[in-house]
């Protein structure tokens, strides 16, 4: 019967390889040139270090150290062998780091509106990657809903009032609405008071409720206004930047455009709608990936910082 049959933890030693403990002791002594310091580093006694070195020298058949009193020096054979052993340990350490790094990596699939990705998120992603290099973000810009429970995405960033059943919804930013237009269009056709909006083409996405909320806020009937219905808010902003009409500005997405002067918000007021804003939507089970929680926390921080900076560009309440 083999020893491994009696003891499942036993392992047959290789005649080509010395014991690992002896090699570790040799590398430490060779690097430190001290049996005492090697023992302190390896948390073993100096006599145990000496035993490991003797075992190794007997296995190799050559002396590895010259011992003169308290001093220790590598022999020529010892110096050559140390280079090989140290290199082998370095390779093992590198491979171990790689394996641990790969094991710690997480992927996070984020479903989000194209307008949020293009006008706000993408310009700030470097900050998240620097804070969390172990997380691989996969962005899926889409207008369509995804099945979070079915694993189509780990988290969704959506715009609305947050009333999505069977899902966990966390408000990231409440929306403030104000008409925005290009400086060129504002110069040709001034927007000095709310009623002036009726002289413009209103650019609307698939959510005309934004214009309705603003109109109720200022007490204006826009039923007879000219409207250009567009599918995606990204296209609404592009049309506004091109001077084709007035867009209902979503504060988070137009703040950078206002700071650059690409758009202007001439009216000194903004409207709000109950619950309307950007939401982090997660599976309703309460589980989810730890990376999703880190991403939501980072989004909150970035939105708060963007809000404090963007408030200087938005009209005062």
From TrEMBL:
Family matches, as SUPFAM superfamilies: Periplasmic binding protein-like II, Winged helix' DNA-binding domain
Originating organism: Bosea rubneri
Pfam name, any one: HTH_1
UniProt entry tagged with the keyword DNA-binding: yes
Keywords, alphabetical: DNA-binding, Transcription, Transcription regulation
InterPro entries per UniProt: LysR-type_TF_proteobact-type, LysR_HTH_N, LysR_subst-bd, WH-like_DNA-bd_sf, WH_DNA-bd_sf
Protein name per UniProt: Transcriptional regulator GcvA
All residue ranges annotated as the HTH lysR-type domain in the record: 18-75
Family from the record: Belongs to the LysR transcriptional regulatory family.
PANTHER family per the UniProt record, alphabetical: HTH-TYPE TRANSCRIPTIONAL REGULATOR, HTH-TYPE TRANSCRIPTIONAL REGULATOR TRPI
NCBIfam families to which the protein is assigned, alphabetical: PRK11139.1
